[in-house]
């Protein structure tokens, strides 16, 4: 049957090897009147059976749903409202954080957010020179009790906090946090600005964006509507209201003000190197521009000899006619 | 510390507001008094009230004092810059609330268009007023 499908191939092979070619030759003569196997009804029927059977078997093993890519309709509501770019002071290429805002933002975090949200990666020492003085930071740390130890008798003991301690968490573990918040886990806020699409704009928009749901939106029990939150239903309720905290520096504590301050604070928490980074950027700019200027000058200097030389063609005088 | 510093200011405002309130009331409810004794009584009463409820009122006043600039600015944006989007949103709201939309229809997309427009319009104006 191979010879009937590829007669030329078989005849060529057969030319080299005598006994085989004879056998093949005889078989091909016998089947020369039949149709080739690949064109036969048997082939068609069996390949169809194979295709159908593999499909059935696959369905039995994995289900047909996994064969197709998962259907997903990402509506605007499911993506959440894209936050508008807010004119934060630190957004320029050479702008630093507004540190008065960081200080106020810390106050908002401490008095409002820290009831549910941890700030694991920020230690008291991080605040020193950023928003608070050493003495202020020490005093704030000492107000919190930390478990330390073991001591000489092998027991853990409580001691007042020191600068090296990290911010205390409101809940001992994730399960406790979920249990305390109707199943929703308040995320740790240390890197939340980096962790969310839209960064600081998103945080500000989310905090100020609570509103009544538009018609037709159904919220699950205990959920609040926030258009900036993907899906719209957020477990956290609106927390910032006018006059919720009282700022030391006398800034009126409006909702927008508190949202801005705490956003700047969280942005600092996520990017504590921010100011230094931009300073280094300017330093790099100074060095690179200076080196560029020097290299351009040196190039001109070195090339001045070549560029200012004059090439004069002094043709030989024409030979005189006649004998030398 | 902060409370002590701000206490006198709050007191002054407190008095101002009560006098403003009383003048407002007297504007709507004109009362004729036989001058001297009545007037001398009223301030005394007010003073007494103040001293009694001083602490509570101070706290209340100070907490309610700051007014967010955002809602007014956003309202203005909705009415002026984003009137078209608001129109479409309201149309959708009416349609869906009346039950004339297709099953499962919501006005999220229309709402987002309004929000997008209002945010763009209001963000710089609000941030100008923030410290």
Automatic annotation (TrEMBL), chain A:
Q: Which SUPFAM superfamilies match?
A: Cytochrome c, Cytochrome c1 subunit of cytochrome bc1 complex (Ubiquinol-cytochrome c reductase), transmembrane anchor
InterPro entries per UniProt: Cyt_c-like_dom, Cyt_c-like_dom_sf, Cyt_c1, Cyt_c1_TM_anchor_C
Q: Where is the Cytochrome c domain?
A: 100-302
Catalysed reactions listed for this entry: a quinol + 2 Fe(III)-[cytochrome c](out) = a quinone + 2 Fe(II)-[cytochrome c](out) + 2 H(+)(out)
- Quote the EC number: 7.1.1.8
Task: Name the keywords, alphabetized.
Answer: Electron transport, Heme, Iron, Membrane, Metal-binding, Mitochondrion, Mitochondrion inner membrane, Respiratory chain, Translocase, Transmembrane, Transmembrane helix, Transport
Residues given in the record as heme c binding sites: 113, 116-117, 236
For biological process, the GO terms are:
mitochondrial electron transport, ubiquinol to cytochrome c
Give one Pfam family: Cytochrom_C1
Q: What GO molecular-function term can you cite, just one? A: metal ion binding
| Similarity remark | Belongs to the cytochrome c family.
Specify the protein name. Answer: quinol--cytochrome-c reductase
Q: Which species is this record about? A: Kwoniella dejecticola CBS 10117
TrEMBL record, chain B:
The membrane-topology field of this record reads: Peripheral membrane protein
Identify the stretch(es) annotated as Disordered.
31-78
Localization in the cell: Mitochondrion inner membrane
SUPFAM superfamilies assigned to the protein according to its UniProt record, in alphabetical order: Non-heme 11 kDa protein of cytochrome bc1 complex (Ubiquinol-cytochrome c reductase)
Q: Which InterPro entries match?
A: Cyt_b-c1_6 (IPR003422), Ubol_cytC_Rdtase_hinge_dom (IPR023184), Ubol_cytC_Rdtase_hinge_dom_sf (IPR036811)
Gene3D superfamilies named among the record's database cross-references: Ubiquinol-cytochrome C reductase hinge domain
Q: Which GO terms describe its cellular component?
A: mitochondrial inner membrane
Q: Name one GO biological process term.
A: mitochondrial electron transport, ubiquinol to cytochrome c
What Pfam families would the database entry show?
UCR_hinge
Q: Which residues form the signal peptide?
A: none
> Is Cell cycle a UniProt keyword of this protein?
no
- Alphabetically list the UniProt keywords: Disulfide bond, Electron transport, Membrane, Mitochondrion, Mitochondrion inner membrane, Respiratory chain, Transport
Feature: compositional bias, Acidic residues:
37-68
Q: What is its main location?
A: mitochondrion
Q: Which residues form a coiled coil?
A: none
What are the residue boundaries of the Ubiquinol-cytochrome C reductase hinge domain, all occurrences included? Answer: 68-130
- Into which family does the record put it? Belongs to the UQCRH/QCR6 family.
In Swiss-Prot or TrEMBL terms, this protein is called Ubiquinol-cytochrome C reductase hinge domain-containing protein
The record lists the organism as Kwoniella dejecticola CBS 10117
Taxonomic lineage from the root: Eukaryota, Fungi, Dikarya, Basidiomycota, Agaricomycotina
């Amino acid at each position: 049957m191979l010879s009937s499908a590829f007669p030329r191939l078989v005849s060529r092979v057969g030319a080299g090897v005598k006994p085989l070619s004879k056998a093949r030759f005889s078989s091909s003569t016998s089947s020369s009147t039949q149709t080739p196997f690949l064109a036969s009804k048997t082939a068609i029927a069996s390949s169809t059976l194979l295709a159908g059977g593999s499909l059935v078997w696959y369905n039995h093993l994995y289900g047909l749903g996994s064969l197709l890519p998962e259907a997903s309709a990402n509506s605007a509501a499911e993506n959440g409202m894209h936050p508008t770019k807010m004119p934060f002071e630190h957004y320029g290429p050479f702008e630093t954080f507004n540190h008065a805002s960081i200080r106020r933002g810390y106050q908002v975090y401490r008095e409002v957010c820290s009831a549910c949200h941890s700030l694991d990666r920020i230690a008291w020492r991080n605040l020193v020179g950023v928003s608070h003085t050493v003495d202020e930071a020490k005093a704030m740390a000492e107000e919190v009790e930390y478990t330390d130890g073991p001591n000489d008798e092998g027991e853990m003991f409580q001691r007042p906090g020191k600068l090296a301690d990290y911010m205390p968490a409101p809940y001992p573990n994730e399960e406790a946090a979920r249990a305390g918040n109707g199943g929703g886990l308040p995320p740790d806020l240390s890197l939340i600005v980096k962790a969310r699409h839209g960064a600081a704009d998103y945080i500000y928009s989310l905090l100020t964006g609570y509103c009544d749901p538009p018609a037709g939106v159904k919220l699950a029990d205990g959920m609040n509507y926030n258009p900036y939150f993907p899906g719209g239903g957020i477990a956290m309720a609106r927390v910032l209201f006018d006059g919720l905290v009282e700022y030391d520096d006398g800034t009126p504590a409006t909702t927008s003000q508190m949202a801005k301050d705490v956003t700047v604070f969280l942005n600092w928490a996520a990017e504590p190197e921010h100011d230094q980074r931009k300073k280094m950027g300017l330093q790099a700019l100074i060095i690179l521009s200076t080196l560029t200027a020097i290299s351009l000058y040196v190039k001109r200097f070195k090339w001045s000899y070549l560029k200012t030389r004059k090439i004069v063609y002094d043709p030989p005088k024409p030979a005189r006619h006649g004998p030398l | 510390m902060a409370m002590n510093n701000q206490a006198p200011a709050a007191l002054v405002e407190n008095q101002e507001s009560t006098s403003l309130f009383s003048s407002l009331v007297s504007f709507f409810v004109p009362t004729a008094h036989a001058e001297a004794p009545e007037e001398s009584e009223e301030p005394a009463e007010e003073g007494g009230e103040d001293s009694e409820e001083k602490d509570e009122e101070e706290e209340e006043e100070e907490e309610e004092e700051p007014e967010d600039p955002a809602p007014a600015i956003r309202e203005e944006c909705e009415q002026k810059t984003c009137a078209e989007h608001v129109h479409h949103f309201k149309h959708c709201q009416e349609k869906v609330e009346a039950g004339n939309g297709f099953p499962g229809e919501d006005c999220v997309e229309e709402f987002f268009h309004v929000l997008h427009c209002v945010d763009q319009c209001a963000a710089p104006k609000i941030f100008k007023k923030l410290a």
